[in-house]
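Weekly puzzle thread! Below is a chain. First person to post its structure in token form gets bragging rights.
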Amino acid sequence: MGRSASSTTVTIPRCDCVVITDQEKVVKPMKRFLVLVSMLLLGLMPGCVSNSDLHALQADTSALARQSSAHEQTVEARVQQLRDRVAQFEQSQAETRRDAARVADTLDTLRSQLQSLRGDIEEVQHEAGSTTELADFEARLRDLEQQFSVSSQ
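Winning reply:
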């Protein structure tokens, strides 16, 4: 009749073990032996150098030290030159900024003056328009006066 199916989950633990092979068993002692031999050879090498080779090596070392010193002085001189050029550039840039600020200020002043002049021109044009109207009115008045004076005579 009604059988319920039960499922069981089995968790298998994970193993993070390191497996050492036969090859690794041989390689590790060989590495240790090579390191020991190389250290031993480094300790014995100074005894294997002849005096003439040692003097030649010392001469080469001192020549290299002199060359290094000369290169270092050259590099220091070049670095100083570059510092001087950067300082000059920064000074020039500051002067340029000041000049640009002055030009901007002058431009603002000129714009203000131009706006004022435009206002004055508009005012004069308006007054001129009024003057023209007044002149027209006076001309019409004279015409009327002339017409009345001609008709009254």
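Puzzle host: Confirmed. Bonus trivia for everyone else. The mean pLDDT is 79.
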